[in-house]
Each structure stands twice: as C-alpha cells, then as structure tokens.
Amino acid sequence: MQYLIIGLVLILALIAIRVSNKHGIPSLLLFIILGMAFGAIGFEFNDYVFADGFATVALMVIMFYGGFGTNWSMVKPVSREAIVLSSLGVITTALLTGIFCHYVLGFSMLEGMLVGSIVGSTDYASVSNVLRSKNLNLKYNSAPLLELESGSNDPTAYTMTMIVLSLIMGTDVSVPLLITAQVAIGLAGGFVLAYLIGKLLTHVNFQADGLYAVFMAAAMLITYATADIFGGNGYLALYILGIYLGNKEFQGKRDVVFFFDGFTEIMQIGLFFLLGLLSNLPDFIRALPVSAAIMVFMTLLARPLSVYGLMLPFRMKGKQLKMISLAGVRGAAAIAFAIMAVNSDAVFTVDVYHIVFGICVLSSLIQGSLMPVGAKGWDMLDPSDTVLKTFNYYLDKANLGFLETRIKSGGKHIGTKVKDLNMEFDFIVAKIERDGKTIVPRGEVVFEEDDIVVLGGETHFDRSGQNLIEFTIPERHEWEGAFIKDLNPPHDRLIITIQREGSDLIVPDGNTQLLANDKVVMIQLQKTDELVDAEPPAQE
Prior knowledge:
The protein is α+β, with helices and mostly antiparallel strands. It has helices at residues 2-23, 27-40, 48-68, 72-75, 79-103, 109-118, 124-133, 142-152, 154-168, 175-203, 211-229, 234-246, 253-278, 281-310, 318-326, 332-343, 352-377, 393-396; strands spanning 400-406, 427-434, 437-439, 452-458, 467-472, 493-499, 505-506, 519-524. The protein has a four-stranded antiparallel sheet with strand order 1-4-2-3, with no helix packed on it. A four-stranded antiparallel sheet has the order 5-8-6-7, with no helix packed on it. The longest helix is centred in the middle third of the chain and has 30 residues, at 281-310. It is globular, with a radius of gyration of 25 Å.
C-alpha cells in the first residue's frame, strides 16, 4: 500500500510542476500543499525523528548540487556582495526578526531569537526554482548574486540556530568558540576534501555507466560526515565541495549532472511533501496569524533593511535592491531547522514548527509569486539572454557546444550582416558581445570590429567513434612550459586546440609552448581495451 501511495505522490508532484509552469505558482509550495492535503484526508504522520533524518539528507543533496550547479565565472563578479548577504545579512535579518517577535508578539527573547535564526536564511531550492522556471534573467548580475547568496546562507542560519538552542537548554557552551569551529572547520574541511576528491577524479577512471554518480554521492557523504565529526558545519563543507567539483572538468561529469538533476528533484519533492504531511491543519491555522505577522515584517522591514544597509558600500541601483529584497524567500531549510529544534531537549512556550512552517508557506506563495511581477515592473528583466547560463548544468546537460571568436581589425566579416553569413556547417550565431553589451544576432545586425561572436551548434563527437578530452593545465604540471613536440602524451591522443586566457583559440603545432591555465583539447584517435584507461598525465 505504501508503495502505491509513493507512486501516486510522485505522479501528483509531476502534475504540480506542470501547474506551476503554467500559472506561475512555485512548484515547491504545491508539494507542501500536496502533503497537507494527504494529512487532511487521514494520512497521519508525526514522526519528527524520521523527518529530521530525511530533511538532513535532502538538504545535503540540495546544498551539494546547489554548489555543483553554480557557474563560478558568472557569480565571481558579485561574490563579495553575495557572501556579505549570506553571512551578515542572515545575522541582521535574524536579530531584527527576533526583536520583533519579543517586543511586538510577546515571545521570550530567546524564543524570538530562535525563530529569527531558523528563518534567517533564504531558500536555495525555492529561489532557483523561481529563477529557472520563469527564466528570470535579471539585470546587473542579480540572478547569480541571488543564487550564490541563497545557496551559501543556510550554514549561517544553522549555526545561529545551534547557538540559540544551546542557550535555551542551558548548555555550557562558548558561543565564540562554537561559531569559530563551525565556520573554520567547515571551510577547511570543504576545501581540503574538495581538493583531494578532485585529484582522485583525475587519477581514477570509472568507465562503467553510473559509477561516477556513485563516487560523487560517496564523496558528498564523506565530506559532510567529516566536517560534522570535527565540529564543523557540514552544509558549508558540502557547498564548497559542490562549487569546486562543479567548475572542474572531468570524465563522467555529464553522467553526474543527469543523475543528480533527477535525484535532487526527487529529494525536493519528498522533503516538501513530508514537511506538509508533518503539519497538523488545526495547529497550522492557529499559528497562521503569528506566522503572517512575522512574514510581513521580514518582507517589508527586516530583509529590506538588511539588504539596503549592507549593500550601501557596493552602490547598487535602487531597483536592484528592491528585487534582491523581494527575493528573500524562506523554505525547506528553515522548516528542517525547526524540526531539529523540536527534536532537541528544549522546552518552548510557542509552537515553533507550525509558526516557521506558516512563514515559509506564505513566503513561498507571496514572494515567490511576486518575483516575476517585480522583475517586470521594476525593469529588471534582461530578455536578450537566459538565466540558465548562471547554472553549470545548463551546458553539462545539453548536446550543445559553443565557440567564441573575436572579429579582428581588417577581418573579412566586418560590415557583413548576420543573414549573409555563409554557414556551411550546422552552427548558428548564438549572440554577439559588443562594448560590454549583449546584442541579439538578428538577421540585419552588422558585424563590427572587436565584436565577440559566439557560435552554437549540436555536438555529436561520439557518433564517429571519436571522443574529445579536455583538461586545464594547472601550475607546476609537468606539461607547463613544455613544447608540444617534446611531449609524450598517450599514443592515442592528439592535441588539436588550446584555449588560452585573454586570447583566441590557438591551433597548435610542434613549436607551441603550453602555459599554466591553458585549456587543452585532445582527440582520442582510437578506442581499444588497452587504451580505455589512458589519462592525461598526473597533475603534480
């Protein structure tokens, strides 16, 4: 019977996704409502211990894949702003909300601070879901900023929740020491394990289908557990691991993307459904007025005050600040932290779970639905490109390839219209970058000197029995500084092109010297059992 219910829930979740795409309602909110509906018709569930364990695993997957999908080249220009919001922004929002709960709603100070800490972070799953499903490509790099902030701010909320819970239970704990351990060990564990796992990926070849995904799942579990055992923040370590591996080229990456794309979707559906099922409708209704008051305060005051105040040094535009303030959607992480609080030995005078649950439901419904409206009303949409470029898996999932070239002085295409190009192969002009602006390459657009032209086309490397292998030469690699004619690559490999920072593609010959950070593309000329395990030279 339980398997029938699980299958039915998944089918209904797929229908909910279609409804979301059609009517603009956040799909994750529909999963919660679906869980509440099952609870209302008699499917009772109040196992907070199981829910806590499932939520922990689900957040691990969401945090890791959130980092894995982060395109660092896109978020790097706004990384300072995002890190400030994901740390100080969470703290400021939590403190303001805690003060409101205490002085306006009558909570004890510690319980007010606990609720503020739990809902202090924005939800990556909800924010990225709205951005992608509505293709909200926001101006001024706002989409990458929101992605990085929402993906990296849960560790701060988790640490604050742990601290306030310890104070409520009267645990003898050094707050500065706890914060230092959570952040320092989480960061160190994430970077060290990411580096070691990345090195292992270059030395081990998992040729069997699916084994790269298994390896990545094991790496995820080991990273979280190691950081947690030593007192660090496992979610922070996972996010760093995800960013490092997601922005690294390795064989089998495409398999990993397809596996985790589906697996993460299932975990999100399961998590939000379970959180809805765990709620009790009468308790939810009783807590709703308090939840609504807190949600309105956070949306209109706490989040905007944090954003406007902390972003003041970065001189952002007013409409951008409005958009970032509106995008502070609360979701799964907050409800999961509320479950953690319920499972602790702390005694509360308020219904922490249903108050937090109500805040997240209202935030997802109102803020999530208003994001597309706000983006359009404040002229924050950039229709000339897609927000999907912000996510690594946009290209990793597609059978698409892109080439970038610059029209040099005196080039024969200067003055040529796009429609007059003689495209003898199956390529299209994807976009044109001119003076820092993106130009939609319509047929009448004329090429100018120094235009950066991006060509796109479908890739079919495997159909001919050949395969392209790509890797970047790190510093102190044995190929750094070497001439191609002096190399001794595996005898089934031939270097066919080099992408060098700050320059065009280089078609190499024997006298071409390789430099650190060169992206080398090799073609594998044949494929035999003996050569299958051949890899680029070990990186020293």
